[in-house]
């Protein structure tokens, strides 16, 4: 799977990650592997990475009119996380 250009309906992407928890290791790998390419393809979309100890790995997508959706990234590998992000980013409301 490859990084896609986000839909214009996506206004913000937030990622919650813990820098020490083993449950967040795959999410940290995802950020290292894909963040740069995602940002290069989608420079107009804010991508916020929020670090907090012992937080569940999760991605939040904010769309037009304040609509939000979140997905847990617990036990997902980097490719699965990319698929989740691409699915969230391609939604149209």
Automatic annotation (TrEMBL):
TM ranges: none
Q: Which UniProt keywords apply?
A: Disulfide bond, Electron transport, Membrane, Mitochondrion, Mitochondrion inner membrane, Respiratory chain, Transport
Q: Where in the cell is it found?
A: Mitochondrion inner membrane
Per its UniProt entry, which superkingdom is the organism in?
Answer: Eukaryota
Keyword Transit peptide appears in the UniProt entry: no
Give each disulfide bond as a residue pair.
Answer: 18-52
Question: Listed GO cellular component terms?
Answer: mitochondrial inner membrane
Main location per UniProt? mitochondrion
Please list the residue ranges annotated as the Ribosomal protein/NADH dehydrogenase domain: 19-92
Stated membrane topology is: Peripheral membrane protein
Q: One Pfam family of this protein, by short name?
A: L51_S25_CI-B8
**UniProt family annotation:** Belongs to the complex I NDUFA2 subunit family.
Q: List the PANTHER family.
A: NADH DEHYDROGENASE [UBIQUINONE] 1 ALPHA SUBCOMPLEX SUBUNIT 2, NADH-UBIQUINONE OXIDOREDUCTASE B8 SUBUNIT
Q: What does this protein do?
A: Accessory subunit of the mitochondrial membrane respiratory chain NADH dehydrogenase (Complex I), that is believed not to be involved in catalysis. Complex I functions in the transfer of electrons from NADH to the respiratory chain. The immediate electron acceptor for the enzyme is believed to be ubiquinone.
Record-given protein name:
Ribosomal protein/NADH dehydrogenase domain-containing protein
State the species of origin: Anisodus tanguticus
> What is this organism's lineage?
Eukaryota, Viridiplantae, Streptophyta, Embryophyta, Tracheophyta
């Amino acid at each position: 799977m490859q990084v896609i250009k986000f839909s214009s309906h996506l206004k913000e992407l937030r990622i919650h990650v813990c820098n020490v928890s083993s449950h967040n290791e795959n999410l940290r790998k995802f950020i290292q592997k894909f963040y740069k390419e995602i940002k290069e393809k989608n420079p107009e979309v804010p991508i916020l990475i929020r670090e907090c100890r012992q937080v569940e790995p999760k991605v939040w997508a904010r769309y037009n009119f304040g609509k939000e959706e979140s997905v847990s990234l617990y036990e997902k590998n980097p490719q699965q996380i990319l698929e989740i992000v691409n699915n969230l980013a391609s939604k149209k409301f």
